[in-house]
Amino acid sequence: MSKSALERIESHEKLCRIMQKQTHDRIHRIEGSITRIERILIGCAGGLLAGMGYIILELVTRI
Predict the structure, then answer these.
(1) Number of domains in the chain
(2) Is the pTM higher than 0.70?
(3) Boundaries of domain holding 58
(4) Burial group, residue 30, by CB count within 10 angstroms (0-12, 13-18, 19+)
């Protein structure tokens, strides 16, 4: 027996909703990872700038 058109449409819509939720969850996890990486990069850049500033200050005060 073949499914009626309405049953096929309903099963397709159900599958689409499931896939949409999975996609939304995956995007949410990726956003969290990106935010974490951004914080790490900003912290590293701040540390490098502070270190470079300290070295420049030491070089200027010794001259």
Answers:
(1) 1
(2) no
(3) 1-63
(4) exposed
